[in-house]
Amino acid sequence: MGIELIDTITPKNNGSFPMVNAKDVDVDGVRLPEKLEELAAGGNVESATDSDISNLFRLGDLTVSVAPRTGGQTVLVAPAMESGNMLRYLITDSDKTPVIVYDQPYVTANGWTGLPRNGEVSGAEGQVITVVEMTEQGAKARKAGSAVLPAPLA
Fold it and tell me: Which of 31, 60, 67, 84 has its CA 20 to 30 A from that of 140?
């Protein structure tokens, strides 16, 4: 039967003193400083710079090409969409082009429409189409690109 020695520890002085010393932490039967040295010696510790971390959460680029067609335009997007993602688009006047932010949702309720497989859209000459590759779950932006629409063919 175990004996409970400490129920909780409440920091005082607004947490300005350490709650525990590393030398008092056990990791797989070894004290924490020794375990860290062991991991470092074995080359199993990886480090990332702030730049590395920022690049993990950076909005990727899409190349959006638009060709005129009768009654509208045909949109081509590169690179190919990643598995588990989808494409949505929004056509706006050039002064209302949205700023796309990584991991933010771009939902149909805000005017975003699924890009048809054939890429056919309809907009006026000079308007801007913004295409976002997003997760299927949550519609969160991963890549984006835009292009100016040419005049539709008559």
Answer: 67
pLDDT tier at 12, thresholds 50, 70, 90: low
Cβ distance 105 to 140 under 8 Å?
Answer: yes
What pLDDT is stored for residue 40 in this prediction? Answer: 75
Q: Report the candidate in 125, 145, 113 with the shortest Cα–Cα distance to residue 68.
A: 125
Q: pTM of whole model > 0.70?
A: no
Q: How many residues does the chain have?
A: 154
**Tokens found for residue 89:** 């688009």
121 φ/ψ angles, rounded to the nearest 5 degrees: -130, 170
d(CA 61, CA 142): 9
Tokens of residue 149, six digits: 């629409």
pLDDT tens per residue, range 102-113: 999 999 999 999
Q: How far apart are alpha carbons 102 and 134 in whole angstroms?
A: 9
pLDDT reported for residue 23:
76
- Pairing between strand 60-61 and 141-148? parallel
